[in-house]
Give the backbone structure.
Amino acid sequence: MFLDNLSTNVRQLCRDQHLSYEAASEECNLSSRYFGDIARGKTAPTILTLEKLCIGFKTTPNGLLLPAPAGEEGTYRTPMPVKEVFCMYDSNLRSLTGFPVCPRCKITMEREWQAFCDRCGQCLNWKGYTKATIIRAKE
């Protein structure tokens, strides 16, 4: 329960403050990998880390540890359509490689056609994905 509340609140704070996991990890003075594990609920942070999260997000421990407001968790169960693909040039293959973008957290996903985003847990709808908007990486 503790890790679920923390990860839900960390993801919500990132969305509210328009921060990527990498930008949020810098604000909190944590490694991006460790921050991502906290946001996904895969690791229990120390008290020192909780303090860094509070300072980085400018919130209180209650803002991190208490359950999210009613209704927030249910929105993850409603499927959101995947409408964007992030493309970048792969010099080894000499072609473009595309990665779907989660409609909730806006982070690229590793695979297509998965039921849920592996980062934020959002339920995904792939209907109409073939008409997704292509976002190209700067070369």
Observations:
- The longest helix spans residues 2-16.
- Residues 2-69 form a domain with the 434 Repressor (Amino-terminal Domain) fold (CATH 1.10.260.40).
- The chain has a mean pLDDT of 83.
- The first strand starts at residue 80 and ends at 81.
